[in-house]
Amino acid sequence: MSFQGHTIEAPSARTATAAEDARKHLFNNLTLADYRRSMAGGIERVADRIARTERPFSGISPQRLAPEISGIDLDHPLNDPAAALDELEEVYLRDAVYFHHPRYLAHLNCPVVIPALLAEAVLTAVNSSLDTWDQSAGGTLIERRLVDWTAGRIGFGVDADGIFTSGGSQSNLQALLLAREEALARAAAGTVPPPARHELLPRLRVIASEASHFSVKKSAKMLGLDMDAVIVVPTDRSRRMRPAALAAELERCRRQGLLVMAVVATAGTTDFGSIDPLPAIAELCERDGNWLHVDAAYGCGLLVSPTRRQLLDGVERAHSVTVDYHKSFFQPVSSSALVVSDGALLRHATYYADYLNPARTVEQRIPNQVDKSLQTTRRFDALKLWLTLRVMGADAVGALFDEVVDRAAAAHDLLVADPRFEVVTRSQLSTVVFRYLPQADRDDTTADAANLYAREALAASGEAVVAGTKVDGKHYLKFTLLNPETGLADIVQVLDLLAGHAERHLAERSSAGHGRSTDRSPS
Ligand SMILES: *Cc1c(COP(=O)(O)O)cnc(C)c1O
């Protein structure tokens, strides 16, 4: 074929067959046999891997794993799900970090419940997008019911609303966005003519405790606030915000003409599981009408706890609350929400697009979640919580969370009684922050090195995974207990392993002449 002197290839029989052939991979009524086979095969692989997982981690290094993954030719498909799963076994499943394992004790990753996994399979297949009614229908209403349910557990009134998000960081960002807009509106309303936005922005401040999550500072940066916009107030010995220090900062801001756009209280700090004194903080916020945001990314599990709900008393006085179901409701990533006491506050995230949610859909009372979200296309993550509540119920989730909180208390007592270790504070939730204390030479450099080494050696052995953190400049170890299957015997075993690694490290150090104790001449 020729067109203006150029040769044009007719659509060859080859490309036509290729497209036809590729269509067998589409999920639809014609391919259900393949869908069933493929999914069942995938489930078998995972089940098989879980059955054979003896350690939470293989201990592989990124240097060893990277070539396996870069060596795969992505332009040459295997054309067979079973072969692709065989390959996946080598590059992922064999060496993944397994949160269901009782000796995974590191970060805020929970084992997940089966009803949520079932929901995950359903929601990806149907693939609803929760931005608009016309892409989800019932999904939109189910998400709304769950937001209302959560708001009810928080103790908010009928005006409450919210939105599912990708995680606590996004929830915190959105909360602070809403708070910023409210603060700017409030400041502008008080003055004629209203000051320009760019004049007000540098005066905005957020107050949070020194144990608050880093996403607060990160959000402030994304929201265009000054680098020093987040005022960090000290915590008490239990790592809870000191209300007196908050009061002093509020007073200082007032004197200096700074605009406090939000006070962030943390209900469950990431390291210490400490819950800021919510009633006292709410009291201070209410005095000047300040926005109170409660970051309950971790502590939200208490909303369903049969015995500890009172630890969250005061949360109902917040303007906004972050809840991470993927932290303490045993939900797979992602499952999270931002809940606000007054749904009208969400309007600061509302924009209209002719193709998606024209303003007339509001008049027609068609529910559009995109009006409340920072995202547009959005997963139906809410279905996981829905099936969890419908199959096992909230009390069962709360009972699981209670169990890990009890276990952390027991682990804390074990550590207090163990002279090899030092503990920072008793957690209100399920973390334990501690460190190994060298018996001979207790200076901080030696202790830091021993704890850093012990954590890495333990991870490399794959026997257990624990976290590390810094407290007052010193290196500590951290257990985050979220697995009810983790028994006290597991904890005893991990402590022995940690102490063993630390002792070996100290012995090597001193025999190599690095230890301070060998440098020091006996007096
Ligand atoms: C984990 C955590 C976050 C962040 O949540 P992601 O879901 O990881 O984005 C925020 N705040 C606290 C207190 C957390 O523990």
From TrEMBL:
This is Pyridoxal phosphate-dependent decarboxylase family protein. InterPro entries: Aromatic_deC, PyrdxlP-dep_de-COase, PyrdxlP-dep_Trfase, PyrdxlP-dep_Trfase_major, PyrdxlP-dep_Trfase_small. The keyword Cell inner membrane does not apply. Its cofactor is pyridoxal 5'-phosphate. PANTHER family: CYSTEINE SULFINIC ACID DECARBOXYLASE (PTHR45677:SF8), GLUTAMATE DECARBOXYLASE-RELATED (PTHR45677). Belongs to the group II decarboxylase family. Keywords: Decarboxylase, Lyase, Pyridoxal phosphate. Pfam families: Pyridoxal_deC.
